[in-house]
Amino acid sequence: IHDDYQKTADWLTSHTKHRPKVAIICGSGLGMLADSLKCQDAFAYSDIPGFPQSTVQGHAGRLVFGELKGKTCVCMQGRFHMYEGHSLCKTTFPVRVFKLLGVETLIVTNAAGSLADGFHPGDIMIIKDHVNFPGLVGLNPLSGPNDDKFGPRFPAMSDCYDKGLRCLAMDIAKQQGVAGFMQEGVYAMVGGPNFETIAEARLLHRLGVDAVGMSTAPEVVVAAHCGLRVFGLSLITNKVVKSYEDSESVNHEGVLEVGRLRSQAVQQLVTELISRMEINNNIVKNAD
Ligand SMILES: O=P(O)(O)O[C@@H]1C[C@H](O)[C@@H](CO)O1
Ligand code: HPA
């Protein structure tokens, strides 16, 4: 299996001069982050050996290499979800490829519905921790024989969202004047693709979940397993309906719409975070 990741990494290394230290996974409607990379090399997922395909609207299906504020990055414009029918190994495949490419920091973004009472659509939540519901019942990308080359059989998950990066992001939000809609909280992954019933929403709320979505946790588990530093952001695109009296209902178009509305704020925050984070960067000259 290690060979499969290595083959993809080798193919990418032979097709771009960029040697990224930071990888970004863009959530629903947040793919524009990739457009701001300079000196781009972009590949359709369908052209990359071993890569799965994106099937969800709002996930373009391109891997973009380039520079952001002088730092070399690789950006997934579109991610893979369990509900698309991919195995968890496939949904997290790019994370191990990034590791083999020399990436040290993974930034994950997603669209999520809020359960916390003080949260509102348009808020940006720094992910402090997650509840991996599929993982709790054995649907875990690390299931099966452990690959010791990536990490240990029983990895700790008690500190998978880097505290230093969380603090830095909050400082940056204050400086950028967007602290008013910044939050920090717990993200829970459910399998999807249906949105939650009211009883499910109430259950999640009681369990202390602040935001719910259908991705991210498996990627972060695989990243933490292989020693990547992780930073995560949820864009709150809707309130999860918790009352039988509430006539509102959520839909994917609405999710994408809030993504468009806040895309610039998310982009500015992530750009500044990358610019200010410490990495052993090695920009390759004359990459075009
Ligand atoms: O890829 P993310 O987690 O941002 O996508 C969310 C969850 C579903 O895929 C979709 C629902 O609108 O957005
Ligand atoms: O309300 C939601 N539930 C699950 N996933 C989501 N992704 C965006 N909004 C939601």
TrEMBL record:
Keywords: Glycosyltransferase, Purine salvage, Transferase
Catalyzed reactions: inosine + phosphate = alpha-D-ribose 1-phosphate + hypoxanthine; 2'-deoxyguanosine + phosphate = 2-deoxy-alpha-D-ribose 1-phosphate + guanine; 2'-deoxyinosine + phosphate = 2-deoxy-alpha-D-ribose 1-phosphate + hypoxanthine; guanosine + phosphate = alpha-D-ribose 1-phosphate + guanine
GO molecular function, one term: purine-nucleoside phosphorylase activity
PROSITE patterns xref list: PNP_MTAP_2
Gene3D superfamilies tied to this protein: Nucleoside phosphorylase domain (3.40.50.1580)
Gene Ontology biological process: purine ribonucleoside salvage
E.C. designation(s): 2.4.2.1
Its biological purpose: The purine nucleoside phosphorylases catalyze the phosphorolytic breakdown of the N-glycosidic bond in the beta-(deoxy)ribonucleoside molecules, with the formation of the corresponding free purine bases and pentose-1-phosphate.
Subunit structure: Homotrimer.
Cited PANTHER family: METHYLTHIOADENOSINE/PURINE NUCLEOSIDE PHOSPHORYLASE, PURINE NUCLEOSIDE PHOSPHORYLASE
Similarity comment: Belongs to the PNP/MTAP phosphorylase family.
Name listed for the protein in its UniProt record: Purine nucleoside phosphorylase
Lineage of the species this protein comes from: Eukaryota, Metazoa, Chordata, Craniata, Vertebrata
